[in-house]
Write a structure and sequence with these properties.
Layout: E1 12-19, H1 32-45, E2 50-57, E3 66-73, H2 77-88, E4 92-98, E5 106-111, E6 114-120, E7 124-129, E8 133-140, E9 144-151, E10 156-166, E11 169-177, H3 179-188
Length: 189
């Protein structure tokens, strides 16, 4: 069960589990799905048949997702599994960062019609996006730059921002970065 889901009245809380790293390791198996599976495995070992996520920390200082969950024993497991599936996959994660050696960078980053953050030197921001499907990330200084991104709930994306200087003036640079490279770069800043 996700953060927004209530614990069912007939549930027995039998413990708490924390999954993730300390923030200083380079663990490969620490995507949201990996830590969720680990939490479920720990719940089974403790005699539970469900978990209720009470805290989720996306990658930031750590390259891993971290969750804390209540271990539950439920009477009506079919209803609970349906709720869990519905609530855990309600957002995609955008990790936005900028090279620290970029100078004089200052622009608004938009997702479709909304400003999602201000891009400045040393930005490192994680944003949960609740709109799945094809979206447009864009910014304008002297010239507009945009990229299309197909967001899927439960997935993490890395967006590297920078600045280009050209004949026409300054132009934002927005790049969708491979997960391995993005995770490594995002954790360095």
């Amino acid at each position: 069960m996700g953060l927004d889901t209530e614990i069912p009245i007939d549930a027995e809380v039998i413990g708490t589990v924390k999954i993730g790293d300390t923030g200083f390791t380079a663990t490969k198996n620490c995507t949201f799905q990996d830590v969720l599976k680990s939490a479920k495995d720990e719940a089974k070992k403790a005699g539970g048949n469900a978990i209720k996520i009470i805290d989720h920390i996306p990658p930031g200082k750590s390259t891993c997702h971290r969750i804390t969950a209540k271990i539950l024993r439920l009477m009506d497991i079919k209803t609970s599994i349906l709720r869990e599936t519905e609530s855990l996959n309600k957002y995609a994660i955008l990790n936005i960062y900028c090279d620290p050696d970029t100078l004089n960078i200052d622009y608004d980053l938009h997702l479709n019609d909304s400003i999602i953050c201000k891009v400045t030197k040393n930005i490192k921001k994680t944003i949960a996006i609740k709109k799945e499907g094809l979206n447009t990330l864009w910014a304008t200084i002297d010239k507009r730059t945009e990229i299309q991104i197909n967001l899927e709930f439960g997935q993490t994306y890395y967006i590297k921002c920078n600045l280009l200087y050209g004949v026409v003036g300054k132009q934002p640079l927005i790049q969708l970065v491979d997960a391995n490279e993005g995770s490594r770069s995002f954790s360095l800043f």
